[in-house]
Design brief:
By secondary structure, the chain is an alpha/beta fold. The chain starts with 19 loop residues before the first helix and ends in a 13-residue tail after the last helix. The strands form two sheets. Strands 4-3-5-1-6-7-2-8 form an eight-stranded mixed beta sheet, with helices on both faces. The chain has a four-stranded antiparallel beta sheet with strand order 9-10-11-12, with helices on one face. The radius of gyration is 22 Å and the shape is globular. The relative contact order is 0.16. The chain folds into two domains: 292 residues, Alkaline Phosphatase, subunit A (3-Layer(aba) Sandwich); 124 residues, Arylsulfatase, C-terminal domain. Strand 10 and strand 11 form a beta hairpin. It has 15 helices and twelve strands. Helix content is 27%, strand content 14%. It comes from Neolewinella litorea.
Length: 508
C-alpha cells in the first residue's frame, strides 16, 4: 500500500450498486451477520483540503488515500462541524451540530453522560467496537461516568481488535491518528525529499523560506498518516475483510497554521474526504455536493441497518454514497465557540456561517474580542493562543502590522462575506459593498433560519455566556514523540534518494 503501483487493479473495480436500495430499508437486527459491513473511520488530526494527491496537490504524496479514491468516492466539499478537535469529534460521534451538544461545543470540555454516540449503538447491535490513538478529545469523559472513550474501548491496534472478534462478528473501528498535529520535527519534509519551491503558499501567509519549510513538515506528517492508512487497508485485504468494510478517511479540522485551524475559513473547515466500500460505492466518483462530517454518525448506523435516533439531527449521506446521481446539499453551515482558554474573560469567539459554491458568509458575535486570542498570554499556548505556535506564526507576528497580521490576528467586523468566484482564499471581505447587498441579505436569512430551526441558543440570545462558563479541563505538557517512529521516518525519507538538500534554521 505504500506505492501506487501496488494498487493497479483499482481500474478493474466496477460500478456495482445493484440491490443497495433494499439494504437501506432493511433493519440490520434482522440481517445475518455477514451482510452487516465493518465500519472503519480513519481520522487525521489537523489536515486540510486539498493536501492530497487525489486533489492535485503538487508536493504531498498520498498513494493510499488516492487508491481509495480511485476505488470509491472522493468529496471536494466536506466540512467539519467545527474547526476545533473536541467539538468536531463530538459531532462525528453524536450526529449533532456543536451548539446542540452543549458544553461539548468547546475545546477541552466534559463529555455529556447522556450523549448517544454511534459506537455504543453499534456495540448494542452486536458490533465489536474499539479505537486506538486519539478518540474523542481533548477533554474529560471519566468525570461524567464514561468508563472508556466515547469512540470505543482502547486497543493497541486494529490487529488486537480483529483477534478479539467472535466468528462472523462485524467490527467498528476508529483510527484516530495524531498526524499532522503539531509539534513538528523541523526539516522532516526536507529530509523526505520534498521541494520547497513546489509548495503552493496560501496568500494569507508570507512567502518566506521558513514558511515553505513549515508547510513541508506538515506535509511530511500527512504522508505518515497515509502510510498508516495503507498498513491498515493492507491488513483488511489480507484478512479478507476489505470488500465488506465501509471506510471513511477524513480529518477533524484544518491544518495547525494561522487563519486555518479554529477558523471558519476553508483552511480551517474544508476537509479531505473519501468513502470506499467495494460494490456499494461507485468507483472513481467525485462529488461536489456539501457534507457536514456530523452526518457520519447516521451514515454508519444506516449502513449497519439500524434506526437513527431522532436526536441525531444531521442526516445520513448513504444514499449519496450508493448512487452518484442522487443530489446532495448545495451548502453547509459552520460554527465555532471557545477553542483554547486564551482570553482574560474566558470568553468564546463565537461565529456562525454558511458556505456554498459562490459565497462564504460569517457572523462574528464578539467583534470587539481578539479572534485568535488576547495578544498577551492568558492560560493556553501563549499570545494569540488559538493559533498553535509555529515558525509561520512567529514570522507573521514579527512582520508587524501587515496584511498577513491583520488576516490572522487582527480584530474582525461583525459580518464577513467572501466572493469565492474571485477570492477562493477568502482574503477580501466584501460585506460592506452595495453590489453584494442582496447576496448578504439572502445568506443572513438562510443562516438565521437554520439557527432558529436547530435551536441554536445564539439565535435568541446572540451574546449568551453559555460557552464562556464551560469548564476547561486540560492537562498541560509538551507533546511527546515516539523516537522509534521518527527513526523510521528518517529512514523512509532517505529511501527516497534525496541526497543533497539545504536544511533551513527554522526551528520554532
Amino acid at each position: 500500500m505504500n506505492c501506487p503501483t501496488y494498487r493497479l487493479r483499482y481500474a478493474a473495480l466496477l460500478l456495482l450498486i445493484c440491490g443497495f436500495a433494499a439494504l437501506l430499508a432493511t433493519n440490520a437486527r434482522r440481517l445475518p451477520a455477514p451482510e452487516r459491513p465493518n465500519i472503519l473511520l480513519f481520522l487525521a488530526d489537523d489536515w486540510s483540503y486539498p493536501h492530497a494527491g487525489a486533489y492535485g496537490d503538487p508536493v504531498v504524496q498520498t498513494p493510499n488515500f488516492d487508491w481509495l479514491a480511485a476505488g470509491g468516492m472522493l468529496f471536494t466539499n466536506a466540512y467539519c462541524a467545527s474547526p476545533s478537535c473536541s467539538p468536531s469529534r463530538a459531532s462525528i460521534l453524536t450526529g449533532r451540530y456543536p451548539h446542540q451538544n452543549g458544553a461539548m461545543g468547546n475545546l477541552w470540555p466534559e463529555f455529556s453522560a447522556g450523549a448517544t454516540v454511534y459506537p455504543r449503538e453499534l456495540e448494542q447491535a452486536g458490533y465489536l467496537v474499539g479505537h486506538d490513538q486519539k478518540g474523542w478529545g481533548p477533554g474529560d469523559f471519566r468525570s461524567t461516568g464514561w468508563t472508556h472513550n466515547p469512540a470505543g474501548r482502547t486497543y493497541d491496534d486494529i490487529t488486537q481488535l480483529l483477534d478479539a472478534r467472535q466468528e462472523g462478528q462485524p467490527f467498528c473501528y476508529w483510527f484516530g491518528s495524531q498526524d499532522p498535529h503539531r509539534e513538528y520535527l523541523t526539516n522532516l519534509g526536507a529530509w523526505s525529499g520534498m521541494e520547497a519551491d513546489s509548495v503552493n503558499v496560501p496568500p494569507f501567509f508570507p512567502d518566506l523560506p521558513c514558511v515553505r519549510n513549515d508547510l513541508l513538515d506538515y506535509y511530511a506528517e500527512v504522508e505518515r498518516f497515509d502510510r498508516h492508512l495503507g498498513e491498515v487497508v493492507d491488513l483488511l485485504e489480507s484478512s479478507g475483510e476489505l470488500d465488506n468494510t465501509l471506510i471513511i478517511v477524513t480529518s477533524d479540522n484544518g491544518m495547525p497554521f494561522p487563519r486555518a485551524k479554529a477558523n471558519l475559513y476553508d483552511a480551517g473547515t474544508r476537509m479531505p474526504f473519501v468513502a470506499h466500500w467495494p460494490d456499494r460505492i461507485p468507483a472513481g466518483t467525485v462529488r461536489h455536493s456539501y457534507v457536514n462530517l456530523g452526518s457520519l454518525a447516521a451514515t454508519f448506523l444506516v449502513a449497519a441497518g439500524l434506526e437513527v435516533p431522532a436526536h441525531m439531527t444531521l442526516p445520513s449521506i448513504l444514499p449519496e454514497l450508493a448512487d452518484a446521481t442522487v443530489p446532495g446539499a448545495d451548502h453547509v453551515f459552520l460554527e465555532r465557540e471557545r477553542h483554547a482558554q486564551v482570553r482574560a474573560d474566558s470568553g468564546s469567539y463565537a461565529v456562525r456561517g454558511v458556505r456554498n459554491d459562490s459565497f462564504l458568509y460569517l457572523r462574528n458575535f464578539y467583534p470587539e474580542r481578539w479572534p485568535a486570542g488576547d495578544p498577551e498570554a492568558v492560560l493556553s499556548v501563549g499570545a494569540y493562543g488559538d493559533v498553535d505556535n509555529s515558525i509561520t506564526k512567529m514570522l507573521i507576528l514579527a512582520g508587524g502590522q501587515t496584511d498577513h497580521y491583520r488576516l490572522s490576528f487582527g480584530k474582525r467586523p461583525a459580518t464577513e462575506l467572501y466572493d469565492l468566484q474571485v477570492d477562493p482564499h477568502q482574503i477580501r471581505n466584501v460585506a460592506a459593498e452595495m453590489r453584494y447587498a442582496r447576496a448578504r441579505e439572502v445568506l443572513e436569512e438562510q443562516l438565521s433560519d437554520w439557527m432558529r430551526a436547530s435551536d441554536d441558543p445564539r439565535h435568541a440570545d446572540p451574546r449568551t455566556v453559555r460557552w464562556d462558563t464551560v469548564r476547561y479541563t486540560p492537562t498541560y505538557g509538551r507533546r511527546t514523540y515516539d523516537l522509534d517512529a521518527y527513526i523510521a521516518d528518517y529512514r523512509y525519507a532517505r529511501s527516497r534518494n534525496h541526497t543533497q538538500f539545504d536544511l533551513l534554521p527554522c526551528a520554532e
